Amino acid sequence: MPTPSEAGATGESTRIEAEVFPRRILLVDDSEDERALTLAILHRPGSEIVVADRGAAALVRMEQEQFDLILIDAPMATMDGCEAMRRIRALEAETNRPRVPIIALTAHAFREEGARCLEAGCDARVAKPVDQRALFEAIRSCSEELRVEPDAEIADLLPDYLAHRWADLDALWIAIADGNWALARRLGHDMKGSGRIYGLPRVSEIGARLETSGRASDRREASLALSSLESFLARVARRTGNPVAPSGAPGVNPPRSPSD
Predict the structure, then answer these.
(1) How far apart, in whole angstroms, are the C-alpha atoms of residue 79 and residue 198?
(2) Which CATH architecture has domain 4-143?
(3) Of 38, 54, 75, 146, which residue is most buried, by most CB within 10 angstroms?
(4) Which of 9-23, 29-43, 108-122 has the highest mean pLDDT?
């Protein structure tokens, strides 16, 4: 009989297969053992996974073929993952190709490494060793509809609101690492209440997850929620034409009320 975590993973797998699982995936990783783990997680009937063991090999495949998703190991030798992502984005721009979602596989979950990957062009990231739930959540976050629908009267407040959420993201990664669950609960509760006001229902959903995981002191669930928030904020930044916010000194910013 499956354990609750196994049952949850199976349910997650079934949903993502039915909804958004990509058909052609390019996996770029120079570690044979880590490639084998990722391949085992990704293997699904009807999906094809093409492997490249170097960034340069990935660029050659990109020039010749079409993919629905790219997974790139960030700390590769010779040409690291960030450089490979920058070159892939340049190739897409030069050849007028559709933007393929990229998930970066990073050595750590924290924002210091994530900011570099986001600025290089990734859409989401997953810490290694790759976890099935984290990877499937990243795939879903790259594929889900992006809704940014603030009321006209408060649209000019949105840039400040998003900047505050980037600052909170930094603070939350540190809070979770330190076990500061009171802060995680408070910021999650604030986002749950404010996201929809600013036309960002996804922020409200993620805030509710953070509040719940904070109550349970559940580091894994909180980390998954923060990864989703980071990916969402990066996608909104691209949609609105704002640069992806770099990681800076941790700060805690309260939601700004439209009446302020």
Answers:
(1) 40
(2) 3-Layer(aba) Sandwich (3.40)
(3) 38
(4) 29-43
